[in-house]
Amino acid sequence: MFSADCTVLVTSCDAYRDVEGPFIALWRKFWPDCPFETVLLAETERPASAGAPSFDSTIATGPGKTWCQMLADALSRIGTPYVMMVMNDYFLEAPVDTQLVLKRLSEAKAFDAANVRLEPNPPGRVPWPGSDLMEYPKNTAYCVTCQTGIWNREYLAGLAARNKSAWEFERFGSFMLADEKRPLLVSQRREFPFLDAVHKGYWEPWGVRVMAENGVEYDFSRRGEPPLSVRLREGVKKLVFAIFPWTLIVRVQNALGVGMKERRRGAQG
Known about the structure:
It is a single chain. By secondary structure, this protein is an alpha/beta fold. Helices cover 33% and strands 17% of the residues. The protein contains eight helices and 13 strands. It has helices at 17-30, 67-76, 98-110, 153-161, 166-171, 205-213, 228-243, 246-256; strands at residues 6-11, 37-42, 57-60, 82-87, 90-92, 115-117, 126-127, 134-135, 149-152, 184-186, 194-196, 198-199, 202-203. The strands form three sheets. It has a nine-stranded mixed beta sheet, sandwiched between helices. Strands 5-11 form a two-stranded antiparallel sheet. The chain has a two-stranded antiparallel sheet with strand order 12-13. Strand 1 (6-11), helix 1 and strand 2 (37-42) form a beta-alpha-beta unit. Helix 2 (67-76) runs antiparallel to helix 4. The longest helix has 16 residues, at 228-243. Residues 260-269 have low confidence and may be disordered.
C-alpha cells in the first residue's frame, strides 16, 4: 500500500521522453522502498516495456498544454494532501534515506509548510523554530523552485494556476507570496541524492557518468552533450549570480523581461 499522505509526481513531456527510462531505472535502484506512489506526468501515454523498470502510473494530460497547465491538471487528479515533485532529469545517484524523507513529510504537516525543499539551493536564511530546517523569506529569488521537495498540494496547484512555464513558475512564482502565511522551508544539506542530469536540452557529464556507473543504457544519438558555446554562456551566468544578489538580478530580469524563455508547450529544464 502506498502512503495516503504523499505522492511522487515526476514531471516530463514528450520532448524529454528519452530521459524517462534512465530516470526510473535509477529511481528503482536507489529507492526500492519508496513508500509513495511514483506517478509520471506526461503529455501522452507511455507503453509499458516488458522487464524494464516502470512508474506506478501515468497521468497523460494531452498535447498543447503549458508545463503549469499540465501540473495543475495532474494535481487535480491526485488525492494525497502532499506531493513530492521531481523533474524527470533529476537522477538519483545514491540510496535515499526513507526515514529522513518521512521525517520531512511529518514536519511539513506539523508546521503547515507550503514547501519543504530537500536541496538547499539557494540556502535558507532563517532558522525555523523546533527543527533543523531553515526558512526562505518570501518574495526573494528562488524561494520557489522546481528543486525536489515536499509540497502542500493545494498551494502548489495555486502557483501552477498563475504561471505558464517551469521558468515562470520559479522566476515569477517566487514573487507571488505577499499574502502567503505558510512557511517555505529547506534542509541545511542535500537530503535527496539527485543530480541535474540534463541542462538546456543537453546531457551534463555527471548525468552520463551516473548512467555508465550503474549500467543504464542510453542511445546518445537522441541527445548529446552541450557545445562549447552553451558551456561558455552558462559559465558567465553562474559568475553573475556569484557576484550579485540573486533577488536583485531576478527582479531586474522580471521587470525587463530579460531571458524570457519561449519554450515549446510542456517543455522543461
